[in-house]
Specification:
By secondary structure, the chain is of the alpha/beta class. It has helices spanning about 15-25, 55-70; strands spanning about 1-10, 30-35, 75, 80-90, 90-100, 100-110. It has two helices and six strands. α1 runs parallel beside α2. The protein starts with a strand and ends in a 20-residue tail after the last strand.
């Protein structure tokens, strides 16, 4: 089955989610793909079903971003691996593979928001081998 949208976005981190929210506000049909089980990317990554013991500004910001994305007109596809992208005069064909099998999407535009670096938090002994 082939799906159609105006904009396909690869990555549901802060950049991809924000682009999707804005495109949806402008009336565009948007699909977002991400490998992770939830939106947020490396910056706002969460462990499902785990709540922090104290207020965490990053968690609150990530939760707000996820809520805005959920309220937008965006079709968010998580746990998806993009394995091929084709480009022609009419746009892009994105081939993805997820829990429900393969998906093919035709999009007039493509935004690649493939992410940031890991956030490193030094702890005592972090420079020693085996300390993560």
């Amino acid at each position: 089955m082939t799906f159609h949208c105006d904009v396909a976005i690869l990555g549901a981190g802060p950049a991809g989610a924000s682009a999707a929210i804005e495109a949806g506000k402008r009336g565009l049909a948007v699909m977002v793909f991400d490998e992770a089980p939830t939106a947020g990317g490396q910056v706002y990554r969460i462990a499902p079903l785990i709540r922090p013991a104290h207020h965490d500004h990053d968690r609150a910001a990530g939760d707000a971003l996820r809520a805005s994305l959920a309220d937008s007109r965006t079709d968010v596809r998580v746990r998806q691996r993009i394995w091929d992208i084709e480009c022609d005069d009419n746009g892009f064909t994105i081939h993805a593979l997820g829990d429900d099998g393969p998906t093919r999407v035709r999009a007039r535009a493509l935004i690649v928001a493939n992410g940031a670096q890991e956030r490193h938090v030094p702890v005592s002994g972090w420079e020693r081998p085996g300390v993560i």
